[in-house]
Amino acid sequence: MPFVQVKVWEGFGEENTKRTILGITKVFTDMGLPEEAVRVLIEEIPKSHWGIGGVPASEKFPEGHK
Questions:
Q1: What is the chain's pLDDT, residue by residue, as a tens digit (66 residues)?
Q2: Which structural domain, as residue segments, surrounds residue 7?
Q3: CA angle (61 as vertex; 59, 66 as ends), nearest 5
Q4: Is residue 66 domain-resident?
Q5: Beta strand pairing status for 51-52 and 39-45?
Q6: Strand, coil or helix: what is 59?
Q7: What is the predicted pLDDT for the residue at 45?
Q8: β-pairing, 55-56 with 51-52?
Q9: Separation between Cα atoms, residue 52 and residue 15, nearest integer Å
Q10: How many angstroms separate the CA atoms of 14 and 56, rounded?
Q11: Cα atoms in the Cβ-side hemisphere of radius 13 Å centred on 65
């Protein structure tokens, strides 16, 4: 049973989360696995806890940048 973990910035949104779960599930069902076998976990991480090149994403990307 595949388990896919996706980490995104806070504010990803419910609609994007649903579309991501559906899309990832489809990748595996296209390979012949049943939908029920696929597990997807979406974690929203605050930009201040996400480092890029030694700098918090909250500093590197201003509010509103997704």
A1: 999 999 999 999 999 999 999 999 999 999 999 999 999 999 999 999 999 999 999 999 887 655
A2: 3-60
A3: 140
A4: no
A5: unpaired
A6: helix
A7: 97
A8: antiparallel
A9: 26
A10: 24
A11: 8
Which pTM value belongs to this model?
Answer: 0.84
Give a yes or no: residue 65 inside a domain. Answer: no
The C-alpha atoms of residue 65 and residue 25 are separated, in whole angstroms, by 27
**CATH code for position 43:** 3.30.429.10
The answer to whether residue 2 is catalytic is yes
**Cβ-based neighbour number of residue 12 at 10 Å:** 17
The domain total for the chain is 1
Closest CA to 1 of 35, 42, 43: 35
Q: What is the pLDDT of residue 48?
A: 95
Residue 29 inside a domain? The answer is yes
Q: Which residue in this structure is represented by tokens 């994403």?
A: 57
**Residue 28 belongs to a domain:** yes
